[in-house]
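Loading example: each entry is read as three labelled lines plus one structure line.
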Amino acid sequence: MNALLNVWTWIAVSAGAIFFLAGTVGLLRFPDSLTRLHALTKADNLGLGLVVLGLLPQTSGILDAVKLIAIWLLVMLSGASISQLIAHRVWMDSDPQQ
Amino acid sequence: MVDFLLMAACFILAMVALGLWRILRGPADVDRMMAAQLLGSGSIAIVLLSGAATGQAMMINVALILAVLAAFASLAFVKAGDIARQGKMPDEDAQ
Amino acid sequence: MIDLLNVGLVVLIVGLAVWIIFARETFSAVVAFIAYGLLLTLVWAQLNGIDVALTEAAIGGGLTGALLVGAASRLRLTENSAQAEQSGAALKWLAAGVSGAVTSALAVCVLALPDPAPSLAQEVAANIDRTGVGNPITAVLLAFRAMDTLLEAIVLLFALIGVWSLTPDRFWAGRPGIKQSADPNGILAYVARVLAPLGIVVGVYIFWVGADYPGGKFQGATILAAMWLLVMMAGLADAPAISRRTLRMALVLGPVVFIAIGFLGVASAGAFLAYPGEYAKPLILVIEFALMPSLTLILGLLLLSAPQRAAEP
C-alpha cells in the first residue's frame, strides 16, 4: 500500500512540475501580455494542484490533508480573479477611448 | 522519496526564477502585476515540497498564509495600478 | 540535494536584490521587493524558523506589498522630477562600500561563532513547563521577554499616531484614504466576499495554534488586517473616521491590558510583568486576546494612511 502511495506521489508531483515547466515556457515565449497571463495562471494553478494531490498521501492526518485542499482552492480562487482583473486592465490600456 | 521531493522543489525554484526574469523585464505594468501571482503559487509549491521532504508538518501553515496573502498582494497591485492609471494624486479626491 | 535548493535560493535572492537596486521605475522595484520578501520566507523555512517564516509571509508578502505599492503609485506623478535630484556617483559608491563592509562584518561574525553557538535555548527548554505554553517562541515572547512584546505593541501605536499627525488640518478627524468603489457585481467584490471569511478563519486559526505550534497573535492579526483592507478595497466597507471614540478605545485596549497585567505582576509576584505561579497560561491568554484586535486595527489603519476626507457631519 505504501509503495502504491509513493508511486502516486511520484506521478502527480512530476506531472505538476511538467505543468510548471509548460507555464514558464509559455511565459517566456508568448508574444503579448494576455497570452503570457493565460500561460501563467492556467499552468501554474494546475501545476500546484497536481503537486498538492501528489503530497496528499504524504500527510500525517486528516487536518493536514484538509489544509492542503484549502490551499489549492484558495490559489485557484485568487488565480481566476487576478487573471480577470489583469486582463481587464490590459483591455483598458489598449483602448484609448476608455 | 525525500530526494525526489527536494529535486522537484529545486526544479520549481528554477522555473520561478526564469518566470521572474521574464515578468520583471516586461514592458508594461501589467506584466509586473503577474509577479505576485507567480511567486505566490511557486513558493507555495516549494514550501509544501520541502516541508514534506524534511518532515515538518507546520510548513503547511506557512503555505496557508502565503495562499491567503499572495491573493491579497496581487489584488493590492491591481488596485494600485488602477489608481496610478487615473493619473491624479489620491489627495485630490478629497470629498 | 537540500544544498542545491539552498544555493539556488541564495543565488536567486542576491540576483533579485541587485536587480532591485538598479531598477528604474519605483513600481517595478516594489514588485521585485515583494518577490524578494516571498523568497525570504523560503529561506526562513529552510533555516527551521517556522514562526519567522510565518511572519515574513504575512508581513513581507502581504502588508508590506500593499503599503509599498500604495506609496509607489502616489509617487508616480513626481517620479520624473525626483530622478533629476539623484545623488552623484561618488555618494553611491560610498553607500555601496559601507553596505559591503557591514555585510562582510556580519558574515565574519556569524561564521566565526563557536560550535555550539552560545544561546539560551537550554534555559528556555528547562523552564517552559512553568509558562503553560508548548511553543518556545511564544514562551519567550509572552513570558520570558514579555517586556519586549509590550514595547513593540506601543511602538506600533506610536507609528500610527505619527502617520495620523500628517493629516492636513481640514481633514482632521476624517476618514483615511479615498473612497474606494468597485462594481458591486464585479470580480473584486466577489473575491472580497469569498476570500474575507476564509481569511478570517485562517487568521484566527493561526492565532489559536500559536500557543503550542508556530503561529501567534502577530501573524493572526496581520491576516485579519489584510482581510479588513481587502473588504475596504472592494468598496464593501468604508474606513472608520479616526475621531470615533470606540475606535480609539479599541486601539489602546491591548497595550493598556498588557500594562495592567504588568502592574498586577508587581503586586502579586514581585516584578513588572512577572506572572504569579499557576496563573501564567490564563494571563498569557488574556494578553493575547486583548492585543489581537488592537494589533489588527493598528496594522490596518497604518496601511490606510492619514485621513484624506473630512468627516461627515
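Residues 133-313 of chain C form one domain.
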